[in-house]
Amino acid sequence: MNALEELLSANKKWAGKMVESDPLFFENLVNVQSPDFLWIGCSDSRVPPNQITQTTPGQIFIHRNIANMVVHTDLNLLSVLQYAVEILKVKHIIVCGHYGCGGVKAAMTNHSYGLINKWLRNIKDVYRYHQDEIEMLGTEDEKLNRLIELNVSEQVLNLAKTSIVQKSWVQNNGPHLHGWVYDLHDGVIRPLLHLPPGSKLDHPIFEYDNLED
Ligand code: CO
Q1: Catalytic one among 22, 64, 72, 101?
Q2: Alpha-carbon distance 213 to 210, whole Å?
Q3: Tell me: the pLDDT tens digits for 80-129?
Q4: Same domain membership, residue 27 and residue 47
Q5: How far is residue 149's CA from residue 200's CA, in Å, rounded to a whole number?
Q6: Are residues 92 and 179 in the same domain?
Q7: CA 142 to centroid of ligand 1, rounded, Å
Q8: What is the pLDDT of residue 212?
Q9: Residue 187, domain extent
């Protein structure tokens, strides 16, 4: 059996097992999804959201990109965010980074990686905002892991700076925003920050004043 056949065969076994434990499992999910969570994570193959949180299909709406970024001009992310907030009305949005993230590591160097430079540029800005704090740390690994944490926090703030989230905070008193970081060494997620609905931003210029419908 080649690698692709193995994937398809594993999928059949899995589907069979799911139906064995709950005959209506798939039928119940066909027409509706009502996940409580939107997960914004890194594309890294070692950080699969459903597996590391022991959740099943239907529980988490997921967007992944390199280094779990929330870029304010990214139509893909913004479309996912709008759908999750306005239609699915998720209760929580989680930005989950991970220690040892290759995207963040690449952004910390001066090396040119071609097209992806444009994406990593957003992380270089996070480094610039927090350079003093990062450079006080001793080793390269410590610096990298601190930038990974700070990057998660910045992306949570970027969510709060969207009119999508601010409007929902005013109208629905939700969602809660969370910043987490996953440790590849032990498989454990560490919560970093929580912004409840209505939280103040790091600068008032980002607060929209005409969101009441
Ligand atoms: Co990564």
Answers
A1: 101
A2: 8
A3: 999 999 999 999 999 999 999 999 999 999 999 999 999 999 999 999 99
A4: no
A5: 20
A6: yes
A7: 16
A8: 72
A9: 33-206
202 CA → ligand 1 middle, Å:
25
**Does the predicted model carry a pTM greater than 0.90?**
yes
Please give the backbone phi and psi of residue 134, each rounded to the nearest 5 degrees, phi first: -70, -45
**Pairing, β 37-42 against β 60-65:** parallel
Helix axes 163-172, 75-82, angle to 10 degrees: 10
Residues 77 and 119: their CA atoms lie apart, in Å, by: 13
Q: Is the dihedral of CA 61, 39, 48, 59 positive or negative?
A: negative
Neighbour count for residue 96 (Cβ, 10 Å): 24
Q: How far is the CA of 103 from the centre of ligand 1 (A)?
A: 5
119 in the same domain as 24: no
Tell me the longest C-alpha to C-alpha distance in the chain. 60
- Where on the phi/psi map is residue 17: left (φ > 0), alpha (ψ -120 to 50), or beta? alpha
Say how many domains are in the chain.
2
Q: How far does the centroid of ligand 1 lie from the alpha carbon of residue 196, in Å?
A: 26
Strand pairing class (60-65; 189-195): unpaired
Mean pLDDT across 172-187: 98
